[in-house]
Amino acid sequence: MSDKTVLITGTSSGIGLATAVAAARGGWQVIATMRDTAKAGPLLAAAEEAGVGVDVRALDVTEPDSVAACLAGLDRLDALVNNAGAGHVGTLEREGLDDVRAVMEVNFFGVLNVTKAALPLLRASRGRLLTVTSVGGVVGQPFNEAYCAAKFAVEGFMESLAPVAATTGVSVSVVEPGAVASEFVRNVGLADDAVEQAGPYAPALTAYLDRTRAAFADAQPAAEVADRILGLLTAERPAFRLLTSGAARGFAGIKLKDLDGSAVQGLTAGWVSA
Prior knowledge:
Elements: E1 5-8, H1 14-25, E2 29-34, H2 41-50, E3 55-58, H3 64-71, E4 79-82, H4 97-125, E5 128-132, H5 145-166, E6 171-176, E7 180-181, H6 202-216, E8 220-221, H7 222-234, E9 241-243, H8 246-256, H9 262-269
Parallel strand pairs: 1-2, 1-4, 2-3, 4-5, 5-6, 6-9, 7-8
Helix pairs in contact: 1-2, 1-7, 3-4, 4-5
């Protein structure tokens, strides 16, 4: 496998970091990217502990020039793992549309920027395109309107792209974790006074945050998600959708068989009841 190259975005922490190390341990040549390479310390330490090496490169997924610079000079790419993303908690009446656009730029258009640049290389190698979305790309969740909208968009895009890419030998998959023990929750940008600033939505936000803290108390380890991703990279016939845990399968399964929407609405209404 030492001649196989995978590029992974968002590797400074969490799923991306764990996947970079797991792939390198599995024999892949790993291009590990992040917006700020000054934050590569934890990745490099983890790689050293595992006895592997990774090629760390700067990549801002929202900047096409940064994407082009990162991929410049690559003569082979066998797999791309779109992992970079950012959480966001808020509701439309209490935030500006610029906030929503920023979430879409990172979580949707950022994925498209990297995918578009990588596709010629993936076609040449008959490679694999994996995108880490979320169960939030299947089930809309309270106070995650912008985030879920972006993830829904990614899911729809990749589901539509998959049969087209397959005609050129490129397999497309989406990876849907549930709650994962990582820096992701700390990076949602929620202010300390968010509840006080929520106005009429304060009771609902309080209930949502209490429920979310409980859910993440039993979160799936990032290394476990990375192992699932590595399985997709090496599977003879990779599935289009990979739910990374039993909890994720149970949660997303509610939506996937919810023909009239009542099951999801009944579930999430309880999240915001004081």
